[in-house]
Amino acid sequence: MKELPKIYQPQEVENEIYARWEQGGFFNPDNINSEEKYCNILPPPNANGELHIGHASGYTVMDIFGRYHRMKGEKTLLLPGKDHAGIQTQVVFEKKLKTKTGKTRQEIGRQEFYKKTYEFCLDRADYMRSQEKKIGISADWSREKFTLDPDVLKSALETFVKMHEDGLIYKGKRIINWCPRCATALSDVEVLHKDSPGKLYFIKYPLENLQANFITVATTRPETMLGDTAIAVNPKDVRFAKLVGENAILPLQNRPIPIIADQRIDLAFGTGAVKITPAHDPLDWQIGKDHKLEEIQIIDEKALITEFGGKYAGMTTHEARQEIVSDLEKLGLLEKIEEFSHAVSICERCKTTIEPLTSKQWFINVDAENYSLKEQAKKAIEENLIEIFPSNLKKILIDWFGNMRDWCISRQIWWGPQFPVWYCDKCGQEKYIVSLEKPTSCPHCGGKNLTQDENTFDTWFTSGQWAHTTLKSHGNDFEDFYPSDMMVMGRDLLFFWSSRMIMMSLYATGKVPFNNLFFTGLVLDKEGHKFSKSRGNGIDPLTVIDKFGADALRMSLIMDSAPGQNSRLYEEKIETFRNFANKLWNISRYCLTQEGFELVEKISEEEIKTPADKWILYKLHLLIEDTERLFNGKQISVVADVLKTFTWNDFADWYVEFNKIEKSQKVLGYVLDKILRLWHPFMPFITEHIWTLAQQEKLLMISTWPTSLSNNATLLDGWQYVENFKAVITTIRNVRTENKIELDKKISIVINSDNKDFSNMIKSEFQEEIIKHLKTGADLISYNQPELELGNYIKRTAGAYTIFVNLEGAIDTEKEKIKAEKEIANLENFIAGLSGRLSNQEFVSKAPAQVINQQKETLAKKQAELAELKKHLESLS
RNA sequence: GGGUGAUUAGCUCAGUUGGCUAGAGCACUUCUCUUACAAAGAAGGGGUCACUGGUUCGAGUCCAGUAUCACCCACCA
Known about the structure:
The structure is a single chain. The protein contains 28 helices and 29 strands. It is of the alpha/beta class. It has a four-stranded antiparallel β-sheet. Strands 10-11-9-12 form a four-stranded mixed β-sheet, with helices on one face. Helix 17 (571-592) packs parallel to helix 21. The chain starts with 9 loop residues before the first helix and ends with a helix. It binds one RNA strand through strand 8, strand 12, helix 7, helix 10 and strand 25.
């Protein structure tokens, strides 16, 4: 038989196995013949860096489901891709450009910058693809997509055109989130709120007609007062009731501004009077609209004070604030300054403070008359057209849609697709033409000089359509696979991505993008911190794979965690799964080196010979049923857990040991065959490797998924016997350890029982061999001798049997008495509880019969045990 | 301000439909290099399932509340 190394070396086989899978061609669903289909569109990572452990975590989940469904015979597509990741990639590449060539993007120009960034992304995509393969992802690389691939992009832009026709798109001057560093508008979800200590400034505004009096307002951003166009108070506020309709004089600017009433003003906050700066605050903007106030932009896109800021023009907002506060103080208009902690808006990408300002941008009306994106999405979730794991995120998503405001989709960056919008130099910016292709002439005036809108799309506009644009770009894939079965993503993408995909795909296709939405938690380090560059605690998936193998990495990413819960990753944890892989290797190594061993797909009744065979097959039968149920509930970590228990604690610890004495090679081959299949989705490399060593024909990857044995009671009758038998062995070992008896010292055993299958045991020489060999040190075994000199023996209950171990007078009777007394107390306690329950009329009448019977059986068993123990204690004294 | 999650062994975490005396890995104690495996095997110690009530014949599991921690959302200037 083959020479197999004692220790599994994943590094030596993984690459070769992956190459064989690829050559096999079965990553491509076109090569699988089946009516049943399964599709999982993989989230495209940002093509500007490398894969991190979070990607590996999500990919592992997707690949487990993909491989499971493929083995179930379904035409399975895992569709891979990469995202151009607008702002983030631009930031990354600009830095790279600066370091490498010392140039800025402005110095090389828009076209050149775009070209170079594109090349950079393709290069990163190549590298990341190689990483994905290392993890073992069984994706169809022939279908790999990039968000800027012409066909994918065209499909996404067509949606823009359709939306425009349907009145869902508008261009308008509205207040938006502006990042001065990125120099672009951002959508609401790209803005984070960070609580930070600040100050609340109380400023006195003189009243126009009552020179001696003031109205005091409170603000955290005094510099914005330069653009104030009103003061607002709550209409119910009696303090200010008579001032409404009057004018105040805006200090420093010396402009009269009206005092207005608006119910959105909180009476309890500050002074109850609020300065209104429509151009630089979202609420003020809304109030300004409603009261038809003038908007004065006093902060520009570089966060500098504009010409409308008078003497402060050209200052940064920070400088202006200091100057203004100091000037107000000199004028005696600064009433007081209070310490005040409030939420500051910052850019999600670069953490720069956001300046709200009014700007002309493109928006999606998410609640348009013709079609409400947000209502449709909400409805789809409410009606469970998409099942969400974990389910608590369902409500969060519904609420989010409920509060969603119009989505700003234009960005002033260079990296990303430009709007398919054209302007004629004669007609100007107001009369635009929406068209995928550049029009030959202006439809309004016939002018030939047309230029394209310079804005680029929010990256989530294109990735938000990924679920259908990818499939539409390849043959009949859309018809075959849409909607996909499952989408897996980190829960940090809940609002960014899952929400947009649901809205956009519903709109573009009329159907939900996927039937199941599965969120993974964050992968944290050992101390529970996020992995981050600044913390330097990153774990590189490739390093882990190199050290422990891809299977160990995969297992450590999905085990011990529930869907949507964060989990921690650290070396010791990965090690335990490396160890498990090695265990599986050695189990297989034992099997493969057995004379006449082969993997067996099907087993016949004649081949099931021993009680141990029945026992392991029964356990296997339960395992397969559990696996099926748990996979349906998407509980993959529990699947891996029950598989591990079976493999290690049932098969390796007991069945393999039995097999050393009592050969039943068909069953051994049958069970290992099932173990390899069941483990394959989780640990594809090692299982495929062992499979190959055991047989040469086809790949494990496309072998069929095990189904449970027909529950033939007579076929497997007698399996319980082995549980009793195991108890005998464990008890003997226990007695031995307790009494510190060396293993090489032989002892004699008496086993008593009136159990019906006990006669089988007496007849079986194999059983006796097994007891002797399974580390019990038992030498002489005799049966059914009720009258024993108990002083010489230690008596124990083992399952349905009573066993006596002869220690030849070496018993520490005091110790044994204490132990027996303790055990008796414990048992009496338990029996009292149990019989109490059984005599409770309510329990007996209401609990299911099965539960009652079970407890009755247990009670009888425990009472018998107690009686034996009491006799034992008596004999000891 | 609103919301979500967590709280189970020394540590990290599972726990499926509510059902027998609550599990795993690591760590710990003792023993063993027994021809699949010391990356292992054998035996063991370690728990008021955060707290308080409720529902139920029966609660780690369902409900209400409390506490602590973590995270998310938010136009309180």
